[in-house]
User: What shape does this take?
Amino acid sequence: MQELFALLHPFKFKHRSLCMPEDPKMKRECYGVFYVTYDLKAEEQTKTWKKMINIAVSGAAGMISNHLLFKLASGEVFGRDQPIALKLLGSERSFQALEGVAMELEDSLYPLLKEVSIGIDPYDVFQDAEWALLIGAKPRGPGMERADLLEINGKIFAEQGKALNAVASAALICLKNAPNIPAKNFHALTRLDENRAKCQLALKAGVFYDKVSNMTIWGNHSTTQVPDFLNGRIDGLPVEEVIKDTKWLEEDFTEKIQKRGGVLIKKWGRSSAASTSVSIVDAIRSLVTPTPEGDWFSSGVFTNGNPYGVAEELVFSMPCRSKGDGDYELVKDVIFDDYLLKRITKAEAELLAEKKCVAHLIGEGIAVCDLPEDTMLPGEM
Amino acid sequence: MQELFALLHPFKFKHRSLCMPEDPKMKRECYGVFYVTYDLKAEEQTKTWKKMINIAVSGAAGMISNHLLFKLASGEVFGRDQPIALKLLGSERSFQALEGVAMELEDSLYPLLKEVSIGIDPYDVFQDAEWALLIGAKPRGPGMERADLLEINGKIFAEQGKALNAVASAALICLKNAPNIPAKNFHALTRLDENRAKCQLALKAGVFYDKVSNMTIWGNHSTTQVPDFLNGRIDGLPVEEVIKDTKWLEEDFTEKIQKRGGVLIKKWGRSSAASTSVSIVDAIRSLVTPTPEGDWFSSGVFTNGNPYGVAEELVFSMPCRSKGDGDYELVKDVIFDDYLLKRITKAEAELLAEKKCVAHLIGEGIAVCDLPEDTMLPGEM
Assistant: This one.
């Protein structure tokens, strides 16, 4: 199971204005200046724009969202002709901060941002959402066991999953709690790990990071994650032909990716928000723009039918390609060696153990929580 | 004098790589992956790109910069064909956080971001900078008098002004300490106030904020600022023809803009960073793209030669237009009435009094600090 993030790709729902609900019993209201309704087809400047899409974001008062929402509103994610409605999910405790975020969105005067609504009821906020960005998980506190964290965040995602399923369009628990939404529409973020892996390979090879391609993160967004240097390429060549230091690749490289988050927390006093939000943008763009020929990206997706022999019924990061339609297919031409397989198997074992911990949250009976070791999320101290 | 922000427009300096100084005695080094040097003309993908520009940012470890730097790197400010070098100025105390920012910039894999260097010596960091974004002022602490704040931030800007002048390409103090740089190249930010004013007028008029134009903030980024509803337009019509509530315009409107920052601090627990960085982006874009026909923008600029009768030798926010070449001209066809003139005169009086407070920092003898009242910056409590 991946914490932190999940996204749904576009659903084909009839658009209904969030700000002027057809059913007057619906109490959700647009925030501040966004109470105005817009007929985008009536104006010269906006009549060629696409139909508005609704984007629901949980954890909307948090630090990652504080970067991400402004990127969504600016048009850099979905394009300069895609008007958007933001539906922000907070908690009772964070409601004032959520209002502050909505105020800053007002003050930013983004032309594409036509609606902002805020709320604390996921059933309400996820109504009609074509994309749901679930960023509302809690970070692990000092002295907290990973199993405790799974329990807490599992409940959050279970609730959000149920809400998504009930009224409209987040990892395994969420997916299992939303049986009406195709499992293929759920993604768990490993893109930050992919980006960090590309950067570290570039640094070691002495090239710019845009020369690194075909980078897969296998498995979990945790210390068992597997940055795959066997299939990765630098300037079109296999990584191992450019970086001949096998010890560095097998030992230092993976550790650098895994520990990057922790180093950042020490330097910066809090976990990475800016680069995390950049990676969320990258992840979404990878689904809405065609993948460059010969390349791929990593995403935590449902394992059913995967060609790599990973256990079914898991969410597992694997190499994906997209035609840009919001959908993806798994990459077939990847190779494996003993080292890579051993590492993937370890990641799989962790996810299978985590799954047993949350059995009660995914409708699979009584939880048996016997995690083999207390693995950490990248960034945890 | 405006605190918070100042920018310089492009200078015609010969580009020299910051990462590989010609003079080996120069110790500045690019951070991490950015130590690699790039020949942009050698590659198919980058050979049509513009020549790289150097952007120096002070206060680079702060919250505003944490948003702004990623916007600069993404290409949304200067365009998708403009490679950039970021030169980040921090303090000894903030150096670790500055490293964290540089690490997050690495992890973001921005193709246009070709160089990042970090330092604590303004003379070094401002070397060869075409743009300098001075965001390194301190916010006012509890119980601090405005005069104390002026003294502290005045010294910061005096040092930065001297450094800019000495080696390469910030408000009145900074300008006065950099006599070799044309005064016209200095801008103090009032764009956040302008954006907030547009939003509040739109809210009151029941229209979307893109319908509000010709919005001037006159004067200082403080409570004496004058949001000008006399010259402002909504859907092409004078504001007062659309909003006929004169009491609201004269009393509530201005107060709403002035107090917006304070309300946000209460809601959000800290001052606005995201929307401030959006407004900095807006301010820069207003200088590098042609102003739309008939419209204008506000910027705090040097008053010498202004057609409005504002005292010379001040930095004062006034209506500007640009051809998109980094330069600007003041707008001539604005109208005044008694109410507007009275308000502008009050803002001018405040800035003249502040100037006397910092006389020692601008080479004008001994400071006489007798501020008429303890005015506040928007957002101060």
Observations:
- Residues 1-6, 8-28, 165-169, 374-381 of chain A have pLDDT under 50 and may be disordered.
- Chain A touches chain B through 51 residues (CB under 8 Å).
- The radius of gyration of chain A is 21 Å.
- Residues 35 and 74 of chain A are 19 Å apart (CA to CA).
